[in-house]
Amino acid sequence: MGPLLVLLSATCFGAMAVLGKLAYEEGVPPTTLVLLRFVIAALVLGGAVAVAARMGRPALPARPGGERRRLALTALALGCVGYAAQASFYFAALERIDAALVALVLYTFPVMVTVASVLLGRDRLTPPRVAALVAATCGTALVLVGAGGLAFHAAGVGLAFAAAVTYTGYILVGDSTVQRVPPLTLTALVMTGAAVTLAVRALLTGGLDVDIRPVGWLWIGCIALVSTVVASTAFFAGLHRTGPSTASILSTFEPVATVVLAAVVLGERLSPVQAVGGALVLSSVLLVQLRRRTPLPPGDAPGVPTGARR
Questions:
Q1: Domain count of the fold of the chain
Q2: Which domain holds residue 111?
Q3: CA–CA separation, 247 vs 237, rounded Å?
């Protein structure tokens, strides 16, 4: 289920670009879209956590001392700092360079996550994993370069790289936290933290424009529910089962999903180069599965915290 959850997450995240274009066509301002995305997601997830608690599934399991408070604050910080900063760097880069180049630089994060996980002792390199990482990276490059010419801008590339570094830290911290916090609770706290940060920014920069047509609200709701609630919850649940390296490699399916959905919904053409890139990304999924089918050492049993099994 771990790889399937990460692939579901990547598909839902990949749909956000298409849904965002549909929202922009209805006159939804980008800053309003980003803030409402997190506010709606935080409210929905908060309600889901409350319902789960009533059904006997506590938001945070019993922990000694002040550990529960530390875990909650860490999850909020993931949203306040990590998610909000990554989104800010990403959209700032989009103002300066092509979306394809932003995504191409952003998707250096699987390499950074894998290297960092190995250096931190959380993971180890195996031939199938290295092959999967190379296939996913090359495939992502082909999918994005196949979209056409890319305009280079040093500041824009720097901002996109900052987004990749921030996302790397977000995944690594999230991996250590998700082992001790249920995915639903973790996602709710992250979305709440991001909503708070972006709300403060909106207040400091002129407020929020909510004069939006009904269809615009529909697309905002789709982005909040599909590309945020489902996508983030599925990612953390998949991360819990696969570990950071595998999750980051499988996440490279996101641009493939974006290109395919854009072709279906918006009528954009899928070039042969992009088709080859998509096939390479899909091959990385098979390579990761080959690794997961190899016999596990005694400490690698499912359910053991990542730091203890790697």
A1: 1
A2: 2-56+65-309
A3: 10
The contacts of residue 133 (CB under 8 Å, 6+ apart) are 110, 111, 114, 245, 249, 284
Say which range, 44-53, 225-234, 238-247, has the weakest mean pLDDT. 238-247
**Tokens found for residue 272:** 């042969």
Whether residue 161 has pLDDT greater than 60: yes
Give the separation between CA 44 and CA 71, rounded to whole angstroms: 21
Q: What angle do CA 154, 156, 157 make, to 5 degrees?
A: 65
**What one-letter code names the amino acid at 142?**
L
Q: How far apart are CA 198 and CA 204, in angstroms?
A: 10
Tokens of 36: 């409402």
Which residue type does 111 have? V
DSSP 214-251: HHHHHHHHHHHIIIIIIHHHHHHHHHHHH-HHHHHHHT
What's the rounded mean pLDDT across residues 43-51?
A: 92
pLDDT at 172 over 70: yes
Only one residue has tokens 């919904």, namely 265
Residues 252 and 277: their CA atoms lie apart, in Å, by 11
pLDDT for the residue numbered 27: 85
pLDDT at 289: 59
Picking from 171, 167, 140, the residue whose alpha carbon sits closest to that of residue 235 is 171
Do 211 and 72 meet the contact criterion of CB atoms below 8 Å apart?
no
Instruction: Tell me which residue of 278, 198, 248, 270 sits closest to 3, measured CA to CA.
Output: 248
d(CA 137, CA 169): 19
Phi and psi torsions of 103, nearest 5° = -65, -40
